[in-house]
């Protein structure tokens, strides 16, 4: 098993690569959050119904479902580097086109394609980053990708606030188009990023793999070291095919596939709905709606989501992945139940409870992309990340579509209790299936444990 990459010193190369890879999550947070502010101006100007607003909010998430499923497989087949900038170019085009969109179907279509491009970036960037990182930095830097998501979300609310204050009528168009600026920034940052040496070695390009390790890490490695871990009991000991969904659902990997998809789904369904329609939720608790106050309140919640990631980043490398995610899910239920049983709580208390929920989400947040990258081998790593992203976005899209309908039809109390119930399902999934991968080499953690090695699962 190769230790060259696992034990390599952490250098400026890793820092730049981590920054470049953070572009997808940051853009996702920005693109999905800015629409929540934009609809406040879009709805009266275009005369949108509640159903139309819900569809606009959910369209990018539906696109992410398609994009994650398709581009994860493609990334494992043709490489991480090939698609590393193409997805950003698509985001630029759709963001700019959104400025001139004046019909619901066109806005929905553009945000659907945006979602596909964002979802494509997750398996590309996170698998590339995971395959370059040393063990000691892997959990922290993969976890920090979600910090970039919340940074993008916070930035979206700041930008939205400024446009609401100074932009006047039609400022929602500038909000939707503003993501093009971030896309162009990351296009520049990503220039010169190398292909994954593990992917190169597994695809018969061993000399290139050795060369990029020598160039960027200054160390020597053999092709045999880089290709170790290319077989598994999942395929009967045979070399597994790149980008194979069959491997994800083979007996050896089926549980891991379900775990990564389900805990991700149970986490992001209420989270995305909350961030997309945060002003409407706060309005249900009495905060003045249609003003900058509900936008700033949602921005504060998004900021707390970001802050909560930092203690979780420390916990996954000290306490471990498994105890961190289980405790986080258990505690996340409490503020949701509080809001569910006291739907008439004062706006200030409701805001505090929502901030508590946001802070406690840190555990699963930082493991969203850490777990699928650590639990699956190079040949299907991007496929696994893409699949988990797709499954999570099904829940997020449904939650985002149903939330405004639930608020108007059932009220805030039942809506919060349903969110608590879904979070409880996530807790059960983690108790049953969460594994411990702290301090384990990437090629080791991605091999399925033998029946005599239960400590990997429950350590």
CATH topology, by name, is Growth Hormone, Chain: A
Number of domains: 1
What is the element string, with H for helices and E for strands? HHHHHHHHHHHHHHHHHHHHHHH
Residue windows where pLDDT falls under 50 for at least 5 positions: 230-238, 450-459
The number of strands is: 0
Mean pLDDT: 83
Radius of gyration: 21 Å
InterPro entries: MFS_dom, MFS_sugar_transport-like, MFS_trans_sf
GO molecular function, one term: transmembrane transporter activity
Transmembrane segments: 17-39, 51-75, 82-100, 106-125, 146-166, 172-189, 258-283, 295-313, 325-342, 348-371, 383-403, 415-434
Domain Major facilitator superfamily (MFS) profile: 17-438
Summary keywords:
459 residues, mainly alpha, Growth Hormone, Chain: A, globular, transport, transmembrane, MFS_trans_sf, MFS_sugar_transport-like, transmembrane helix
Tell me what the structure shows.
The chain is an all-alpha fold and 459 residues long. 75% of the residues lie in helices and 0% in strands. The chain has helices spanning 12-21, 23-46, 50-78, 86-98, 104-130, 135-166, 171-177, 179-189, 197-202, 206-217, 223-227, 245-248, 254-276, 278-284, 292-318, 321-341, 347-360, 362-367, 370-375, 381-409, 412-433, 442-445, 455-458. Helix 13 (254-276) packs across helix 20 and helix 16 runs antiparallel to helix 17 (347-360). The longest helix is centred in the first third of the chain and has 32 residues, at 135-166. The chain starts with 11 loop residues before the first helix and ends with a helix.
